[in-house]
Amino acid sequence: MDGEKPNYRKLLVWQKAHQNAILAIKLMDGCHMKYSRIIGNVLSAATSIGANIAEGNSAFTSQEKKRYFRIALNSSYEFDNWLQILKDSDIISSNQTILIEVENRNIEVIKLLSKLISNLS
């Protein structure tokens, strides 16, 4: 690689997923530990998206790449579910603005991944 960044970092979908994972970490930072299972699930889903995009981008075949991108898409939908739970509860009522931003970015990631997957078919 000789000082060059890995290719996956150049992907817009990875950049958005990465930014969203960072925001999710900030969002969950002030949560009470009695919600630790929810916090863990939110962060697991949020960070899984970018990780699978990165892993899939290094795949040798388009089928393998597609498989990882589908896993990332599934994690995006799981993340969306957790975001809806957070919105509909009082777990993070003080960070609703960040929550809405994260939700909107996740919808963008879902659209981009869906397009990438359909282009690989």
Number of strands: 0
Mean pLDDT: 92
Low-confidence runs of at least 5 consecutive residues = none
Q: What oligomeric state is this? A: single chain
Number of folding domains? 1
Radius of gyration: 15 Å
Number of helical elements = 4
Assign a percent range to the helix content: over 70%
Distance between the termini: 29 Å
Per CATH, the architecture is Up-down Bundle
Order of helices and strands: HHHH
CATH superfamily: 23S rRNA-intervening sequence
Give the CA-based shape.
Answer: elongated
CATH topology: de novo design (two linked rop proteins)
Structural class assignment: mainly alpha
Explain what you see.
With 121 residues, the protein is an all-alpha fold. The chain has one domain (7-120): 23S rRNA-intervening sequence (de novo design (two linked rop proteins), Up-down Bundle), CATH 1.20.1440. It contains four helices and no strands. Helix 1 (12-29) packs antiparallel against helix 4 (96-120) and helix 2 (36-57) packs antiparallel against helix 3 (62-88). The chain is elongated. 28% of the residues are buried. The model has no long low-confidence stretch (mean pLDDT 92).
